Amino acid sequence: MKPRSKRLMLLGGAVALLIGAVALVLTAFQENLVFFHTPTEVAEGKAPSGRTFRIGGLVEPGSIKRAADGLTVQFAITDTAKVIPVTYKGSLPDLFSEGKGAVVQGKMGPDGQFTASEVLAKHDENYMPPEAQHAVDQAQKTAKTVKQ
Amino acid sequence: MKDMQKPERSKSLFRFAAPQMFYPLAGRIAPWFAGIAAILAAVGLWLGFFVAPTDAIQGDVYRVIYIHVAAAWMSMFVYMIMAFWSFVGLVMNTRLSFIMSQALAPTGAMFCFVALWTGALWGKPTWGAYWVWDARLTSQLLLLFLYLGFMALTRAIEDPRRADKAGAIIALVGAVNVPIIYFSVKWWNTLHQGASVSLDKAPSMATTMLTGMLVMALAAWAYTIAVALWRVRSLILERERHTEWVAAELNALEGKI
Amino acid sequence: MQWESWSAFWDMGGFAAFVWGSYGVTLLLVVGELILVVRRRRDTVRRLLRLRRANAAGAGGRRAFEEIVE
């Protein structure tokens, strides 16, 4: 390849990459700066209606119910203020569990039931060995009992 | 580049801003940083794999953290250093500054890719997806494009002075993205979790895990310094090829390389 | 020591593909970068030596010089 055409290709590559970068910022960021909405925002009608969007929050403890077909799951997602019921058919990530973070993508039905097409687990920034986790859980339980 | 610069015999540290002085210095100290990097990486991996416990929630897959975080920090930090040198170069018109930022770019790009790659492999078993378009991941991908754009542009422009300026402008403009990456998890709802280590709170990690992670981050620093210094030497030789000192250096290298 | 055996270590609690896939690719990239840096040094010095020989050859070497500079 001639040096000039090599330079041209590199320059073209640079321009294409920069255009790609700007395009990414404009499209992805505009749509997804907010990756998910909270249940409170959904309840206030701030979430987009009529198209797919995401809701993020905690899986309400005790809300997970599996249907007889073994695939369909019902649970509720909450930010402790509002609760949104969710139905989902498919496999769940390993870290999906009650009381833990999750982000569900799907559509809101007219009955207020959210039908998810994708469920992601959202974990927090805490890393600790199992024994420490156990101790934390115990402490929280105790704190709750004391409060009650 | 026909103008030959007389070496300045200043006693201050600034004398190393002259490529002729910096070239031998870089050659002397680079192996030390490479050695330090190797030792730190060995210690960090030993801590991460054999001393640090498994994570209560994620299990052993969390051990990706020891390279993921080091690489992600480094990719952001290297870009800031590039922007700094670019700024210095534009203001002071020192050629060595531009050369420094160009020597750093490939390593920054490498770490940026590593952060994305390890993040994908970590995301699948934990989140349930290799990739999502949340603000953290998207801005980190943008950083990779900025690195590649910088490298392509500085190589594409023939005139080194113009290449330096064009690269410096990308480095400076793109630097806006770095705080966006860093604070994205605070500013917006993202799938990516918040920072485990930050200035305004105690680290939310077990001590051995944290130590391993920090040692790996230091290893990445030392590695970057070593590789960038080695790369700087080649760049300096190319840029200064019309000078007498490069001629002398080439005499010494003739038949040896 | 965190592991019962070496096989447990390599298995990484069932996450072997994800953990070793991360570390493997990183190692490859680091080694690759080191090779590239060493090779760049060698190529630069060789190219400059060639360039100088061509230059020393005088007017006849002029064209060769331009080629190398490109």
UniProtKB/TrEMBL annotation, chain A:
GO terms for cellular component: plasma membrane. Residues 128-148 are annotated as: Disordered. InterPro entries: CcmE, CcmE-like_sf, NA-bd_OB-fold. Coiled coil: none annotated. Keywords: Cell membrane, Cytochrome c-type biogenesis, Heme, Iron, Membrane, Metal-binding, Signal-anchor, Transmembrane, Transmembrane helix. Residues 1-7 are cytoplasmic. One of its GO terms (molecular function) is metal ion binding. Residues 29-148 are extracellular. It is a single-pass type II membrane protein. Residues 139-148 have a biased composition (Polar residues). GO terms for biological process: cytochrome complex assembly; protein-heme linkage. Signal peptide: none annotated. Heme binds at residues 123, 127. It comes from the Bacteria. It is found in: Cell inner membrane; Cell membrane. Heme chaperone required for the biogenesis of c-type cytochromes. Transiently binds heme delivered by CcmC and transfers the heme to apo-cytochromes in a process facilitated by CcmF and CcmH. Belongs to the CcmE/CycJ family. This is Cytochrome c-type biogenesis protein CcmE. The lineage of its organism: Bacteria, Pseudomonadati, Pseudomonadota, Betaproteobacteria, Rhodocyclales.
UniProtKB/TrEMBL annotation, chain B:
It is a multi-pass membrane protein. The keyword Transmembrane helix applies. GO terms for molecular function: heme binding; heme transmembrane transporter activity. Keywords: Cell inner membrane, Cell membrane, Cytochrome c-type biogenesis, Membrane, Transmembrane, Transmembrane helix, Transport. InterPro entries: Cyt_c_assembly, Cyt_c_biogenesis_CcmC, Cyt_c_biogenesis_CcsA/CcmC. Residues 21-192 form the Cytochrome c assembly protein domain. Coiled coil: none annotated. The keyword ATP-binding does not apply. GO terms for biological process: cytochrome complex assembly. The chain crosses the membrane at residues 29-52, 64-91, 103-123, 135-154, 166-185, 205-230. It comes from the Bacteria. Pfam families: Cytochrom_C_asm. One of its GO terms (cellular component) is plasma membrane. It is found in: Cell inner membrane; Membrane. Required for the export of heme to the periplasm for the biogenesis of c-type cytochromes. Belongs to the CcmC/CycZ/HelC family. This is Heme exporter protein C. It comes from Aromatoleum tolulyticum. The gene is ccmC.
TrEMBL record, chain C:
Its main location: membrane. Keywords: Cell inner membrane, Cell membrane, Cytochrome c-type biogenesis, Membrane, Transmembrane, Transmembrane helix, Transport. GO terms for biological process: cytochrome c biosynthetic process; cytochrome complex assembly; heme transport. It is found in: Cell inner membrane. InterPro entries: Haem_export_protD_CcmD, Heme_exporter_D. It is a single-pass membrane protein. GO terms for cellular component: plasma membrane. The chain crosses the membrane at residues 12-38. Belongs to the CcmD/CycX/HelD family. Required for the export of heme to the periplasm for the biogenesis of c-type cytochromes. This is Heme exporter protein D.
